[in-house]
Amino acid sequence: MSWQEQLVGAGYRLTRPRSIVMEILNNAKAPLVPSAIFKKAQRDGHSLGLVSVYRTLALLLKLGLVTLVHFSEGCHAYVLVSPGHHHHIICVGCGKAIEFSGAEDLDALTTRVQQETGYLINDHLLQFYGLCPACQQAAIKEVEWLSKNI
To answer: 87 partner at 20 to 30 Å CA-CA among 29, 52, 66, 110?
Structure first.
């Protein structure tokens, strides 16, 4: 089911701001903060307010069409959700995020934590941070350049 069908199926209208935000997120190479979505819309010639971006993101998050990606600096950005259960790996060099699937791999951990704490766990957030292959190569080239030029 498309995001448009999910939106209408949940009783919401397919508005221009919603379409613009989804288009920008769909074409993004990395998770985007609301201000980046707003600026991209402005650069593309759309008259879209920042408040509309925040409201749209809140609705899309509520409907499970986007998810939050947390960066180590404490801020968060938004990325489209793929069907199924996914987590993200975020590059600390360029900010690119990729998904990897998995829920069953956390079942044993969830059960153990519930038993140890008495909590009833109903959700989780798992993210990994590291360097993507392109940033790893850039770092290697920088080290090689430094070793030759120092």
So the answer is: 52
CATH of 85-150, one of 3.30.1490.190, 3.20.20.70, 3.30.470.30, 3.40.1390.10: 3.30.1490.190
Residue with tokens 């593309």: 44
Residue 81's alpha-carbon distances to 69, 86, 104, 115, 147, in angstroms, are 11, 8, 18, 30, 43
User: For residue range 113-123, what is the model confidence (pLDDT) as tens digits?
Assistant: 999 999 998 87
pTM of the model: 0.69
The domain spans of the chain are 1-81, 85-150
How far CA 27 is from CA of 22, 80, 86, 128, 149, in Å, comes to 9, 10, 19, 23, 39
Please give the DSSP secondary-structure letter assigned to residue 72: T
